[in-house]
Amino acid sequence: MSGNKKKTITKAEQLKQLQEEEEKRLREEEEARLKFEKEELERLEKQRIEKEKWQQLEKKDLERRPEELEELYSLEECFPEAEKLKQDSRSLSQWKRYIQCDGSPDPSVPQEMNTFISLWKEETNETFEIVIEKSKLVLQLIEKLKLMLLETAPRDLRDKNIIQYEGSISQLQELLHLKFNIATEILLRQASTLADLDTGNMEKIIQDENVTLYVWANLKKNPRYKSVRFSDTQTGFEIPRILATSDIALRLLHTHYDHVTPPQAAPAPSPQHTSAASELFKSETKSTTEAASQEAQEDSKPQERGSVFIQEGEIKVDEQVDSEVQMTSVKKESKATECELEMKLLSETVAAAQLNLIKNAPEKPEVSESKEVDLCQFTILGGVYHLDILELPPQCKPVKGWMMVEILKEGLQKFTYPPEITENFETENAFPPIEVTLQVQEKVAFFEEPMVARWDAKGKYWRTDGISDVYYTPEKKLISFNLETFGPVTLMQDTHINMPYQSWELQPLDVNKALLTVTTVFTEIQIQIKENLCMLASIKVKDKGPWSVLEGKWMTPIPFISALKETGLNIFPTAYSHFYVVINNKVPLVEMKAYRQMALLSSAIAFGWSKWNTLCDSTNVVFKVREHLTEEHTDIPNWALFMFSGDRARRLKINEESESFSEALGEETELHSTLYHMVKDFASKEAIEKVRSSSCQFIDSVCHMLLSTRVLSYS
Fold first, then answer.
1. Is the N or C terminus of the chain more exposed, i.e. has fewer CB atoms within 10 Å?
2. What is the sign, positive or negative, of the torsion defined by CA atoms of 155, 156, 160, 161?
3. Which of these ranges, 92-106, 159-173, 421-435, 687-701, has the smallest mean pLDDT?
4. What is the pTM assigned to this prediction?
């Protein structure tokens, strides 16, 4: 019985056990404290070493910064050189236009433009075919004037030139539309002689690369003939009974361009920087020349040397020779200084213009009406469809072998539908909306259903009310809708449908050749850049669409960007785009410096999108970098990650697959003041030679495309 009993613990044993547990706890706490102190000391020591290392790297960077920046400025002289070449090219084009003598006016000369416009106004009785043929020259002149406004540097474009060019554009557009109206009237006077044998009505289609005219004249006034379909097309109208029984003509004039929308006022660049630089240039040149002349005059004065006297004749000869030599030397030095200052001014002007390209507007443009279309948010594609119901003019009548026609003094008149006074009509639905079916222009493509808008002639803006039952068939490129009142109509697409981008990459192909790839939600576009030209290399979409026309066609950057926008492929943000797209906003100056230096390296160094760019602050940009010598280069190294703040570049320790973002410096790397010197740390000799042999026009073109796409902010 006693063996089965539990052993009782005495009070002394309990006390001993508690004491042992307390000692154990104190020992563990001491060990933990010592461990923590050791780790803290190690951490502080590591921090100290890293801080010392960082301070050493910063010190080293600051010591060599003047040298690195001087070398960068030397490389960046390519930008003013490229601008100088553009100016020379414009001057040469102007001279070629002058000696061409082909009868076409020079759009930059107001006298020639005024003469051309006045002479064309005087020409009468021109048929539609003649006007269409003449319109080709008119449209060329308008395009040249627009390009002159876009391509000419702000410092070379005076206010009076801008007013002159914009005035000429407006006059040409108005006169061209007037000529189309007069030609339509002439055509409609002959409607009875051109009537279709089956329907008794006149139908006419006149087509050109820039204009398509559809005209239907209601000669029979058959109340059952309500469906108007132009032969061999799906284009047409469903008209109500009141129109089917009226003396009217329906005209659809599809201009593949937009001469209706007034030019949008873009945020003007501040002229303060340019004017200040100009004044600095003038004052420095003047002071330098004056100082040099004064020095020469002082040096040319006769001098007495000790007690040695020279004969008067010898003094005069020596004075004359010395004076001529010194003045020649001064002129050369003055000229060299003037050229140097001129290039400095041009460099500052170019940099200011580049910075202006990526500056965000401070305020969103106001839209006065709820139904008014915001033209900063939507873009017109495929031109304008001028829909008109016209009063049928008096018809030609044969009289004794002559054709007699009554010509109305007021010219072509529009038929008001619905009429302003509707008291005589009983039914409420006497004036229903007219169903319109339009053929979408082949040269444009919509990624989503187009938005239909009509022109408000009084308010001078596009609006979306008065349009219903829109139906789009992308396979047939047809769009139908109901329209309450006729007038100019257009199709629109969201300007930012391809923004923000999903990724981007700038890849060298060879010296002075590169490929810019931008991937969006709907497509992947590849732009090849060579010297001062750009080309659409490829585009990945379900349907090849209108872009096949642009593939393989080389253009300078500004016309190339315009051509892509006109087809519906817009990857070029405006100053207002940040109000409509969620962007990764960066400081404009940092962004501009990054694009300029990336362009300098683009003959041998590839750059690409990094997911970490969204996680760093607005004063830094992060992107992938690697050497890429040729298109067939197989041994391509892994991407490195660079962070750039505009005045300091570093290689990061993390890579694209890392779990979290860190600004820690990569192993065995240093800080540099420029991307060029950062790249030099790992690039091969061959790569640096390619970079240094790049042409100024190529670098400028790459920089322009990067500034226009803004891949660092809109990806």
1. N
2. negative
3. 421-435
4. 0.82
